[in-house]
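Bench log, entry 3. Co-assembly request; chain sequences pasted below exactly as received.
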Amino acid sequence: MSLIDIFGISGSAVSAQSQRLNVVASNLANADSVAGPDGEAYKARQVVFQAQLAAAGERHGVRVTDVIEDQTPGKRLHDPAHPMADADGYVTHSNVNVIEEMVNMISASRSYQNNVEVMNTTQQLLAKTLQLGQ
Amino acid sequence: MLDRLTSNLRFHGEALTLRSERQQVLASNLANADTPNYQARDFDFGQALRSAVAGLGAGTLAMAPSAGQRSSATLLPAGTLSLSSSSAGTSLRTPQQAGGDTRLLWRTPEQPSIDGNTVDLDRERASFADNSLRYEATLRFINGSVRNTLSAIRGD
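Structure output for the full assembly:
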């Protein structure tokens, strides 16, 4: 019964989207963190999605192949009174773009909902198929 | 004689199998709505059902139903081989699975996106809902047919 395989496909998508949401949460939580003594501030992370060949023919699930770090330099603010300020009086902040992360979050949660909806529909169809001929 | 009782069911059975195949393809499109460079796929349901039913027509002439199914399985790959070179692996596999010509085609993107993904979420959702509804309709046809046959047998 090939409808069963949809749970594998949509399940992989739901898990990938929840990992994306996790990364967004981590980025947003660290949006205001500043550089430590080593001068390295938090770097925004992004997930990389890739289509994954499912067992049945050319149906694809999703998997997260990599979590990459955004290498753009964080913004530097002049604040000599700050305890983390360097010799020139600059504080390095994380390079998280809050607007981008919010958009990312909305997109991830919508995709998550979509895939849950797909699984709900499939579950209903399967239940009706099981009652066939009764 | 006995296979006449179920020959009507077999058409709807083929349709049901193809509907579930298509449901799977659409679910995979929806799952990959955010995957870069993913190409949305689908197949021509009418064409697939026609080729599945063409295989059935030969099958109902033969006495044993298994012989009919085997003939549809051996005839179809030969027909699809010459046409599809892009997805030869699946075109050989899926017709035997589904009894129909489920060659996957690519969707034409109406609003291409910069990451090379061609999934149009609205269209895929609409197709998914449409396909679920038709799947349910096929289920009801089968149920009705079974009920009719049973009431004819019982005679009450």
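Confidence is low (pLDDT under 50) at residues 58-98 of chain B. The longest strand of chain B covers residues 41-42.
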